[in-house]
Amino acid sequence: MAEIDDPENTIIMTLKDGDVVIRLLPEVAPQHSARMKELARAGLYDNVAFHRVIDGFMAQTGDVAHANMEKGWNPARAGTGGSDLPDLPAEFSRLPHDRGTLGAARSANPDSANSQFFINFKDNHFLNGQYTVYGRVISGMEHVDAIARGEPPAEPDRMIRVRVAADV
């Protein structure tokens, strides 16, 4: 596991193959970073499926309303929901959508991000300036690369557990 220099702004996401360590970027996207920590601390990301995984592009997850594999997995609705919290305003920056960065998933409305996010499998610079970047995988990207593909996958992988490193 990578050395964690800021445990309050580091997420540990446990997948079937091991832990993925994500450094949040509160200096770039404070509201998105705070939201991820809030949902992680509430346990709402635990058991949530990766419902949209496109080879060579990205893995999307975080639909706490419709994609919890133990409390209401609904493949027909996965990707359409969020949390009970209000949507977030866009926090666009000059940070590129490079391999391993976290982007806020949203509808056509730039201010509609809520709980869903995606992890880029490769540099996806065509997304730059259109989706909020608010984190970066600092270790465990090989576990992200192993996530089952599909929209949704026939046998989706899930975030088994998501924690803020300061709480571990």
CATH superfamily: Cyclophilin-like
Per CATH, the class reads Mainly Beta
Distance between the termini: 14 Å
- Low-pLDDT parts are none
Structure, described:
By secondary structure, this protein is mainly β. It has one domain (17-167): Beta Barrel (Cyclophilin), CATH 2.40.100.10. 10% of the residues lie in helices and 27% in strands. It has a nine-stranded antiparallel β-sheet. The longest helix has 12 residues, at 30-41. It is globular, with a radius of gyration of 14 Å. The model has no long low-confidence stretch (mean pLDDT 96).
Task: Write the SSE topology.
Layout: E1 10-15, E2 18-24, H1 30-41, E3 48-54, E4 58-61, E5 101-104, E6 117-120, E7 133-139, H2 141-145, E8 158-159, E9 161-164
Antiparallel strand pairs: 1-2, 1-9, 2-7, 3-4, 3-8, 4-6, 5-6, 5-7
